[in-house]
Amino acid sequence: MKIMRTLEQLLTSIENHLAQTELPAEPELLYAPIAYSLSGGGKRLRPMLLLLAAELFGEEVPGALPAAAAVEVFHNFTLLHDDIMDNAAVRRGKPSVHAKWGPNVAILSGDAMLICAYRLLQGVPAGRLPQVLAVFNRMALEVCEGQQYDMDFERRLKVSVVEYMHMIELKTSVLLAGAVEIGALLGGASEEDCRRLRRFAVELGLAFQLQDDLLDSYGDERLGKAIGGDILEGKKTYLMITAMSRADEATREELRRTYADAALSDAEKIARVKAIYDRLDVPRLTEQQIGLRFERALAMLDGLSVDAARTQMLREYAAGLMGRKK
């Protein structure tokens, strides 16, 4: 068996494949936003996980790169539409597609991106295509379900921790899970190995999203976004929902008043909410949950039918995503 490619080599192969994906020049307002979106960088997290899963079972897996590109194009399609729904003006430090070209262009270009993602799947070997399509279709629909739950929660006064975890599993984790399952299928993995890798990705995605929630309020502005954005928007994050579930009624009312008080400056509002979070031990509890989910993810790799040494790169990549050294 050949030596597995390095993380840098895998990322380069993804970028090259995406760069070589031909888009027509006309109509410009349909295809230029697609090229703009795909050239915006990002972690390429989902295609990387797909290739890493495929290469657990063999190198140069046929169809893995087209499938990896399909997952990345699908992910970026969801971002185009998400930014319209969230009225987000910025994506990855640049104007979002709907801010640059308008919502109508973003809707139609997003639709075209979804079709392009399915077209890329034509590069998957015919014998594997029905299985890959089944996973891809389930993944795509579940992501839409997660987005709808997220929008539903904006209108609800109360959301439980269990409901929130289910929502982020659909909105964030299932795309990672779909990517690793497709990679494993293409690599020839057994049904049990596919199940374990899917669970690995679900738990990793939950840890990743909870860490994102934590960093929004307690991170460092060098991460590229202002601290406290979720608090100012009144988003129902894990921190906010945990605080509401642990607080007495007086503290809940204090939180509600703080969120709604237009007279407070942004800095005052963030400071007051974080003071309540600290009082209720929310940061520690969130870190505890992140650690638990991450350890569960790694435990799923222990039972795979491949040599343990072959899982090392996937472990390192997962640890790198979480800012960990293990």
Task: Report on this structure.
- With 326 residues, this protein is mainly alpha-helical.
- 72% of the residues lie in helices and 1% in strands.
- The protein has 15 helices and 2 strands.
- The protein has a two-stranded antiparallel sheet with strand order 1-2.
- Helix 3 crosses helix 8, helix 4 (64-86) packs antiparallel against helix 8 (161-187) and helix 12 runs antiparallel to helix 13 (266-279).
- The longest helix is centred in the middle third of the chain and has 28 residues, at 191-218.
- It starts with 6 loop residues before the first helix and ends in a 5-residue tail after the last helix.
Descriptors for this entry?
globular; mainly alpha; 326 residues
Would you summarize the structure shown here?
By secondary structure, the protein is mostly helical. The protein has helices at residues 7-20, 28-38, 45-55, 64-86, 97-101, 103-120, 129-155, 161-187, 191-218, 229-233, 238-246, 249-260, 266-279, 282-302, 312-321; strands at residues 90-91, 94-95.
